[in-house]
Amino acid sequence: MEQHIEQFIEYLATAKHYAGNTLMAYRNDLLQFHQFVLTTRPYVSSWARVDSLLMQAYLLDLKAREYSAASIARKIAALKSFYFYLTEMRVMASNPTLDLDAPRVNKQPPRALTEAQVTALLHAPAEPNTKGLRDRAMLEVMYATGVRVSELVTLDVRDVDMENAMLQVGSGARQRRVPLTPSAMTALADYLARARTRYGAAADNGPLFVNPRGAQLTRQGVWLILKQYVKQAGIETPVTPHSLRHSFAAHRLAEGSSLQEIQRMLGHAHLTTTLVYRTRPALSDGLPKNSQESDEP
What we know:
Blueprint: H1 2-14, H2 20-40, H3 52-64, H4 69-88, H5 115-122, H6 130-145, H7 149-152, E1 160-161, E2 166-169, E3 176-179, H8 182-194, H9 219-232, H10 241-254, H11 259-266, H12 271-275
Antiparallel strand pairs: 1-2, 2-3
Helix pairs in contact: 1-2, 2-4, 6-8, 6-10
């Protein structure tokens, strides 16, 4: 049974080009269900012997353990996808997940930063030292392209096309070229010319954004760097790396870009995912009340 899970994960990776974090989530959810099956019915030795009653028991168990509606919905979605794969591969004749209903999840529109907040954040790395130049370039790129943090940390220095002001982002079906803004280009040029090699990175290859050892930044590292500058900029609303992605989309739409353009730049597989940015709520600045809305750091 575990072998079928690994085959499914391999299928998602090679045929569907799912991101690493998504693959990890699918594997964890399916292994959790497998453990539930083994605990509830130890005699079950194949997926074909898992019926709808066992599925319903799993759903009730998740609710009893107080999983959130969003978490349950994700786990059920993983199961439905897995069983669709098993029926397509003729591992089993019928799909017991067809009548399995996930809880309704009320999705909130993404919360974007205001332009004043973004300006304050981008100017927070004010020191023209190695770290400041790297962090300013990183924040500029995140806001200019809407890149996912998982994509940001895997960028290679060769993905930057300085001549055409473009950035190659993603891999597989999500690979795309996204234009860089003049301010992102300036910050990147300063970082590449004056800072990156000081961390021991090779000039013409390797990770674009590196740590002081010259190695690729991690997602956790990016989050900690962002947290530092959010505090420094005096922004009081919660900000994550994904907040800059949301802000990129919301601000581009406000400036007149089409949903199709935003979809392409964000790498969304479906336009319905991009539609959520059209109904984003208005936000207060989230800056301290005694702060000045200024372009100055």
